[in-house]
Please model this.
Amino acid sequence: MGEVDDTPMGNLVANLQAAMAINPLMHQQVVQFWETQRRMLDALETYQDGWFARRREAVDTALDAVNTMMGEDTAGPSEAMEAVSDWMQQSAARVAEDYRDVAELFAQCGSDTLRSGVEAEQEAIEETIEQLQDLRKEHAMPV
Model:
C-alpha cells in the first residue's frame, strides 16, 4: 500500500476514501459529476465561440455602415438609410441566433445533468450487485 499520512489533510483524505469505499454509489456520482462538468464546459465554449463571432461580425458590419454613411465616398440619404437598415436587420438575426444558441445550451446542459445522474445510479447499483455477489461467493455456506 502506501505510507500513512498522519497530517490533518492526510486524515481527511483517508476518511473520504473510507467513506467512498463503504458507499459505492458515491464513487459513480462523483465521477459522473465531473464528467458532466467537462461536457458543460465544452458546450459553453462552443456557445461562447459563436457569440464572439457574431459580435465581431456586428462590429465589422457597423463599420461598413458608418463608412457608407460618412466615409470618403459619402452616400446620399437613401444609401445611408439602407446601410443602417441592413445593419439593423443583420443585428436582429444575430440576436435571434444568440437566443437559439442559449436555448440549445440550456437544453443540452439540463439533459446531460439528468442523464448523468441516472447513469451514475445505474452504474452504482450494478457495482453494488457485483460486490454483493462476490461477498456471497466468498462467504458461501458449505453444503
In short: The chain is about 85% helix and 0% strand.
